[in-house]
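Notebook, p. 212. Picked up where the previous page left off. The plan for this session was modest: take the two constructs that came back from the sequencing core last week, fold each one, and keep the raw output in the notebook itself so nobody has to go hunting through shared drives later. Recording the first one now, exactly as returned: residue sequence, then the C-alpha cell string.
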Amino acid sequence: MFTSTKNKSYRDSFSHRAGKATSKKQKSFKEYAPARKIITQQPSPVRSTPTKSPVSSSPASPNLNSAIVTICVGPAQRLFAAHEDVLSKAPYFAQACRAQFFETSGKRIDLPNEEPEVFSAVLEYLYKGDYMPKLIYDKKRASWLLDDADTAGNAQGESTVHNNGIGGPVLKDTAIYCSAHHYALPDLQRLALKKQGLASGVQCSTILASARYAYAHTPASDSKLRAHYLALIIRSRATFKRSGTLQAEMERGGSALFFDLFVAMVNHLDDISGSARSPR
C-alpha cells in the first residue's frame, strides 16, 4: 500500500471567453450525419522515451495498525476495503470515519450513488498518488501523455464508464473529477482534468452526455471542467452542427449548459468581430 502527496497544479483556468478562431459559414442543423468523433488533441506520430510524472514522491506503506474500513459502493453494493489512515486523506471519508468512532463492529461507509469503477480510481489515487492510465511526461517533446502500458496501446482513446444515474456512458475522467469534488480532493480534480485534456476520438454524444453530467455534479462556481466542455464544443462546432446531436440535446433542455454555451459563443463572436475591426 502507498501514500500520496499532493499533485502540482498543472492547468491554467479557462477564461470566460472561448478560444479565438476564424469564423466559418454556418450550415443548416438539418445536415445530420451518423455519430461523429471529436479529436481533442492530435497524438504525436513519433514517441520518445517518456518518464513517469512526478505526481507523487516515493510512496510508503500505510500504518499496518490502522483500522480497516469497509466501503459499500453502488446499487450492486460492491465491497471495497481500505486502511482508515489512507481513506481519511479525503476530508469526506475522514468525517465519515469520525462519525463511527465508537462503532465496535467495524466501520462501514455506504456510497449508493457512486460507480465502483470510479471509486476504485479514487482509492488507487489515495494509495498511489495516481490512477490508471498513469500520467507521464515526455521530456524530449516537453508534453504530457498517458502510459500505453496501462491501456494496451490505446492511451488516448475514449475511456468511459457506465453511469446508472443517466443510463449511459460518461467520460471516466469527468466522473472522477466530479467524485473528487464531492470527496474534497482538489489535487485529484486537477489530475483528472489534465488526463481528460489528452483524450481524442470521443463521440459527440459522449461529450454532450459528459458535459451534462459535469453540470449536474459541479457547483456553478466551477471554472475548470465546465469551461473545458464549453471551449471543446465551440472549437468543434462544425462537427456538432452536422451530427444533429447538439440540436437534440438543446431541444431536450434541462441543463444550464446550453445558456452558458450561448454566452460563450456570443463572447467568441465578439472577439472575432473586435479582432477584425482592430487596425493592423
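Okay, moving on. Second construct, recorded in the same format:
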Amino acid sequence: MSAEFQSQPEEYAEVPAEQASPVEESSAPSEEAYSGSILDWIVSNENVQQSNRAAHRWDEFMNADNVREKLIAWLGKIDGLSKKSIVLRLNADVAQIDQWLTDQLNAVLHHPQFQKLEASWRGLEYLTNMVDDEADRERVIIRVLNASWKDVERDIERAVEFDSSELFKKIYEEEFGTAGGKPFGVMIGDYEIHPNPTRNHPHRDLDTLQGLAGIAAAAFCPFIASASPTMFGLDEFTGLEHVENLRSGFDQAEFTQWHAFRKTDDARFVGLVLPRVLMRLPYETFDARADGFSFREEVGGRDRRNYLWGNASYAFAEVLIRAFSECGWLAQIRGVQRNVVGGGLVSRLAVHHFGTDRYGVAPKSSTDCIISDRQEAELAHLGFIPLTRCHDTDLSAFYSNQTVQKPKVYEDEAATQNAKISAMLQYILCTSQFAHALKVIARDKVGTFEDREAVERFLNDWIHEYVTPDEKAKPATKAARPLRQAEIRLRDDPGKPGSYRCTFKLWPHYQLDDLVASIRMKTNIEGRRK
C-alpha cells in the first residue's frame, strides 16, 4: 500500500486551519497529544493516559469530515509540511502497518496448530483433485471421516475387541459385511504414528494401530498413515539425512512393542509413509491485489519448518487413484519409467525453486528431507514406505511399498518368498480387491446350490476369468487378467451351518525382484441375511 494525492491537494488548499472543526476546550487534548503520528502513540501505549490519547486520536481520524482534519488526526502537527513530506510520512506509516500485518500473518500461518489444520484441508483437496475425470468420479469414491487421533484411540480402547468398535461398524459391517454395501478399498489416515507416548503426544499409538490393523484385515481394507520423526529419535525429518545407521535405533528396548506388532499377520494391512510433503507454495508478493497489501511469506531458516508440510499418505493415495483409474488394478504402484506418468511416480506435489536468475532451473525437494538410495532400501526393510526425490527433477516417487509386517524366514526358500510377497502392499491391495468381489458373489450364491462343491466350482470358474498363464502376454491382457494362477477352497464352518470358510491363493503376474510366489488369504462366507 502507498499514499497518493491526486485530487486531494485542491481540497486540502481550500480548508484553512481556522475553518477546521472546533473542539471544546474542556475536552481538547494538550499540544503534546499531537506531537507525533497516531502510530507513534499506538506503539508507545505504555499507560492508561497514553491509551486514552491514542483512542481519542483514532476517533478524530474516523470522524473527520475533510482531508485536513484527517491529516491532523493521523500525523499530528502538519503546519509547514510540504505535500511531498506528508506523502512520505504517510507512506512510511503504511509500510509500517504492512510490516505489522505481515508479521502477524506469518505468526498465524506458521503456528503448528494452524499448519496442521491447513495441511489437512489441502491434503483433502489434493486427493479430490486426483479424481478429475467424469468416468473416474463414478469409480473412485472418497468418503471423509472427521475424527481426531484421540477419537480413534478412545474408540479402540473402549471396545472389548476391535470388532466391537464404532470404526469397525462403519468400515466392515455397514459396507463389506452388508448385502449391497460398497467395500472400502483403502483407508488414508492423516495421522503420524509415534513409537511411545511423550509429553507432546500422550497417546499409545501402537495399541491403537493394532486395533486399526485388525479392522483393516477383517475388511480387506489396508490402512495407510504416516510415520512420525520420533520413530527415528528426531524432532523433524530433516535430521534423517544425517543418520548413518537407521536400524541401530530400533534395537532399543522402547521398540519392543513395535517389533511385536510387526510379527502379527494383521500388520501387513498397515503402511506407514514418510517423510512429509509440501502442500503449497509460499505466498509471494502480488502487486495486482486490489487492497495493495504487500505480503510475502517468510520461509527462511535452516530447518525449513516454515514451509507447509503435510502427510505423505496423500501422495501415496495419488498413486493408488491413478493406478485404479487406468486399469482398475492396484499392482503398478511402485518404481518409475522414463517419460511415463505411472507406477510410483508422484507428479502433483507443490514445487518451490531456488532464487536463480532464471526461475525454475533449480527446484527444491518437495519432501522435507532427501532420502538416499541406501536409506530407501533400509527404510523399506524396517517396514516403512519412503518417498524419494527423482534426481535433478521436480518429481518424487515410491520405489517400494513394504507394509509394516516383517516377513518371516523359513528353511524352505519358496515359503520365505511367499512371506516376502505377502508383506508387500501392492499385492495386499490386489488380493483385497478379489476378496471383496469373492465375498459379495459367494454371499449371493450360498443357498442356491445343492452342496459346498457346487459353490466352490462356481467360484473357481469365476476367478479363472481373471487368469492367463502366459507370462509374455501384453500389458493390456495382464491388466484384464492380472493373475497367473488362482485357487479357491471352501470348507464347512462347524459353528455356522450353511456358512463356509474360504481360503484362496493367488499368483499375480506383476512380481518384484523376480519373486515367484502366491498370496494366501482367508475369509468367512455367509448366506444373504433375510
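Notes on construct two before I forget. Confidence is low (pLDDT under 50) at residues 5-29, 511-517.
Flagging for discussion at group meeting.
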